[in-house]
Amino acid sequence: MAKDFGLDEQYPLDFLKPDMAFPAPLTFWTLRYVTFKFICDKGFAILCLPFICLVALVLWVLNPFFNPGPLFFSQHRMGMGGRRFNMWKFRTMNLSPVQARAHDAPLEADRITAFGGWLRKFRIDELPNFFNVLRGDMSLVGPRPDAWGHSTEYAKRVLHYSDRFRVRPGITGLAQVRGGYADSRRAVQRKARFDSFYVRKSRIKLDLHIIWRTIGVVLTGFGGR
Known about the structure:
Distance between the termini: 23 Å
Number of strands: 4
Shape: globular
Strand order of the largest sheet: 1-2
Strand content: 5-15%
Structural class: mainly alpha
Number of domains: 1
Radius of gyration: 17 Å
Oligomer: single chain
């Protein structure tokens, strides 16, 4: 568990205040760890491509009946160094004329289709993220990227939030396997604490821990929204 790495003692939830600066990318990673990250990122992404194509084909057939609309959904997210990129997912919500909800607005659960909810519960909607990994926008493990507008606000208001911009965002991360979906200010603060810990303590052992926990999250649907 993350507590084994000293997380709860190092970043208590009570010690929170605004933190806006975008720190420089990390420089302390060893060549061994950088090589491990590269192999995991590109290896997993390439291995998953046939499966993603198969899932896309199945969804293309089923969507007209259970989830009418486009197959894919893309959204501007904030990545390493505060850089903007388009993150791709399988669409799970009904189309809306509003492009993005406010950072402090609740999740529009009423827009999630029944079929889309099932995709979200088991994280199937996130499979196209591997295309972002191949492009170099994301990593397999890292802080989960937030929408551009949300990140801009959180960086102004939440302590340690900007630490995440020192590394590439991830498909899965410590906050996802420990805290689930962040749908409140306190949850965002907690997510920032987890992400900051990952950035400061990132190493092979912690990445493997997160990957192993992610398997359980996918199988159980923990924290899916």
